[in-house]
Amino acid sequence: MQKTKTYVSDTVSRLKPSGIRRFFDLAASMEGVISLGVGEPDFITPWSVREACILSLEQGYTSYTANAGLWELRKEISDYLARRFHVLYDPADEIIVTVGASQALDVSLRAIVNPGDEVIVVEPSFVSYAPLVSLAGGVPIPIQTSGKHQFKLQPEQIEQVVTPKTKALIICSPNNPTGAVLNAEELMQIAHIVEKHDLLVISDEIYAELCYDEQYTSFPAIDRMRERTILINGFSKGFAMTGWRLGFIAAPRDFATAMLKIHQYTMMCAPTMAQYAAIEALQNGAADVEQMKKSYRQRRNFFVQSLNEIGLSCHMPGGAFYAFPSIQSTGMTSEQFAERLLLEEKVAVVPGHVFGRSGEGYIRCSYASSLEQLQEAIRRMKRFLERL
Amino acid sequence: MKLTEKEIEIVELLEKHARLPIDTMAKMVSLSVSEVEDIIKKLEEAKVIVQYATIVDWRKVDGHEGVTAMIDVKVTPKRGVGFDEVAERIYRFPEVKSVYLMSGAYDLSVVIEGRSMSEIAHFVSEKLSTLDSVISTTTHFILKKYKHDGTVFEQGDQDRRIVVAP
């Protein structure tokens, strides 16, 4: 092919590769690394769920399902959302089973974004939001939350960036990477501004099951917000099912109908065997989820207190399985800190700036690792800090 | 005895990992070290925590492989003491590791450990069957232990996750 012409689209050319990639390559090439860089549970999917999948395969359930997903699964999702989060969605035409929450995000954005529409992204955030907005033809507008507010979105920050072109706001609570949880009152203040500026909200609630200190509030449960919210959730985090790639969207009929068009042309349906497993997860998985949540909470308490003891100041994150300590006292950048910690002590963490500008000066440590690994990681980090 | 949520958490942690350092446990349940020590002491005194034992895989120790058998025992209960008297006569033998009163086809389930099959056979024929109340015994030898008291013996515990993920 001639090099004079570029074949890759302008949109994709402009996308920055994920900042996590470099660390992954570096850490993967080393032996004896304790990785606190993993954004997924350390539990294997509960056996009853795996067993249900095996049974479905034995019975030969290997064909496509309806585009929106198995009717039985959509009914279970509808019941689950009502039971756990007090939000009501009709399984007939308001729920779509997707290939992970990631696809749910992609479909949601493509369904609502016109070229040039602005979508507000609350940073530090999951690395996919801004690129997905760009791929959908929109313009991502970052808001930087601050450690001073424990990385909770301040409603007035929305007002500062809103323009006539603003279409939607993406929020994620509990948050990756900060673990911040927005409570009912804080969500109500956000809702007020959302309504004032006639915005839509994409609420990524993938960590909703992992909220440790208070009752979780789902955004569409806030007064008058259901009609302007696209709710995204899934099985990856709470049910320890990352590799199954199964998530879902719940949204008012008009949105769901639009999203289903994209989903049916691009994905047809989510994997059938994973859908059968998910039915079991929703019917009988609550005790397993509760058990895992308890274990994360204990490890969070241990890890965050230990970080503070060795001199890395860290707020107590309300949810997810990440600690987001400040490394500003070391005078290093996040990247320098993470790289030296990896090379000198073989502990892999993710530098905060890859999640957004306001993540600079912080590192993300996943505490979804065995207690022994966490204890050893703390010992190594302590040694590292003492040497500086 | 009614326990608080934190007390139950401590018992559960110890049940899985009896050697968990107290300061680690204190952080995990957000209590001080002395608070945790007090709770453990209280639970030990109340015999809620009965003992700290170790699960050993003796198969890995040369010359100590041993044999375990589960014996179903039918007995005649005695007026006034029911099954308790005969159960006690059985569990006093040190080679008897556990004794349970069962519902169903037989009365007592006895787990016994010995150095060899003949040692267990000797115990059954000489000690157990000869007890007045014992009507019959059925001995099942354990061929392989897969899981014991919630612990899987051979467990591949390698982490299959990729090293860094968003």
From TrEMBL, chain A:
Its cofactor is pyridoxal 5'-phosphate. One of its GO terms (molecular function) is pyridoxal phosphate binding. Keywords: Aminotransferase, Pyridoxal phosphate, Transferase. Its EC number is 2.6.1.-. Residues 32-380 form the Aminotransferase class I/classII large domain. PROSITE patterns: AA_TRANSFER_CLASS_1. The keyword Transferase applies. It holds the Pfam family Aminotran_1_2. It is an enzyme of class 2 (transferase). The keyword Transferase applies. InterPro entries: Aminotransferase_I/II_large (IPR004839), AspAT/PAT-like (IPR050596), NHTrfase_class1_PyrdxlP-BS (IPR004838), PyrdxlP-dep_Trfase (IPR015424), PyrdxlP-dep_Trfase_major (IPR015421), PyrdxlP-dep_Trfase_small (IPR015422). This is Aminotransferase. It comes from Anoxybacillus thermarum.
From TrEMBL, chain B:
GO terms for molecular function: sequence-specific DNA binding. Keywords: DNA-binding, Transcription, Transcription regulation. InterPro entries: AsnC-type_HTH_dom, Dimeric_a/b-barrel, HTH-Siroheme_Decarb, Tscrpt_reg_AsnC-like, Tscrpt_reg_AsnC/Lrp_C, WH-like_DNA-bd_sf, WH_DNA-bd_sf. The keyword Chloroplast does not apply. Residues 3-65 form the HTH asnC-type domain. Pfam families: AsnC_trans_reg (PF01037), HTH_24 (PF13412). This is HTH-type transcriptional regulator lrpC. It comes from Anoxybacillus thermarum.
